[in-house]
Amino acid sequence: MIRPACHARGLISFCKSNPALRIEHNIGLLRNLLPRAADWGIDDHSILGSNCLEAMVPWIEGTSSLAASGMPLNAYRLIIDGSTTEAAQAFRIMKYAAAMQEAMLTQAERNSMQPTSWVRLPYGESISLPWHLPTGFPNAIRGIMNGTSNIRFTGPVGDPWDTDHMFLERKDWTEEEWHNEWEEKIGFSAVDSTFYKDVKAWYEL
Fold it and tell me: What is the C-alpha to C-alpha distance for residues 202 and 205, in angstroms, rounded to an integer?
């Protein structure tokens, strides 16, 4: 689904005019979020962490912003299926991404740096960094974990990350060092799955 936040915002007027209305939206990484495009990954046996983020982050961002757009409290809830191994691994990747974003933004604030929309390395490549995630993403993930959010993940959420530890280990990093960890731990982190192989089989003649 393209721009999921727009679809949820379209329900605000109905919820306002019907105070008793409760909407529960159920989604699943394998059930209806993937595949995102025809390019289905490096191989048939894994899902890239970058694909997990691209599929799930817009839903989290959009749902988290509904209250500011006028959605009545408790009127809308997003349920993310966490019953599969792939979904559980994807949530761990999102947690790590949120922890990285928070640490990098703390570094930027202490060094009076301004986050940019993109970064160009000396050899010309444009790259993404943890601080490019949506504003408030770490708090959104925390809300899911502690049950204070209008988003529920049905699988294991684990323990919260150690904010001070994440920052202190990376406080002197360069942008390239941030990018390298982002690529290793997030972008190219592989979630083991036969999902893409199974999807391709559906369309084989």
Answer: 9
What are the helix and strand counts (H, E) for the chain? Answer: 8, 7
With residue 79 as reference, give the H or E element that holds it. strand 76-81
Q: Which helix (H) or strand (E) holds 176?
A: helix 175-182
Residues 139, 127: Cα–Cα separation, whole Å: 24
* pLDDT tens per residue across span 72-121: 999 999 999 999 999 999 999 999 999 999 999 999 999 999 888 766 66
26-38 per-position pLDDT tens digit: 999 999 999 876 5
Burial class (CB in 10 A: 0-12, 13-18, 19+), 163: middle
Residue 175, both tokens? 């942008």
d(CA 25, CA 76): 8
Amino acid identity, position 99: A
85-110 vs 175-182: helix crossing angle, rounded to 10: 170
AA letter at 153: F
Question: How far is Cα 63 from Cα 52, in angstroms, rounded to an integer?
Answer: 17
List beta partners, residue 127: 119
Chain centroid, CA 187 distance in Å: 12
Q: Taking the model in full, what pTM does it have?
A: 0.90
**pLDDT tens-digit readout, 38-54:** 555 555 688 999 999 99
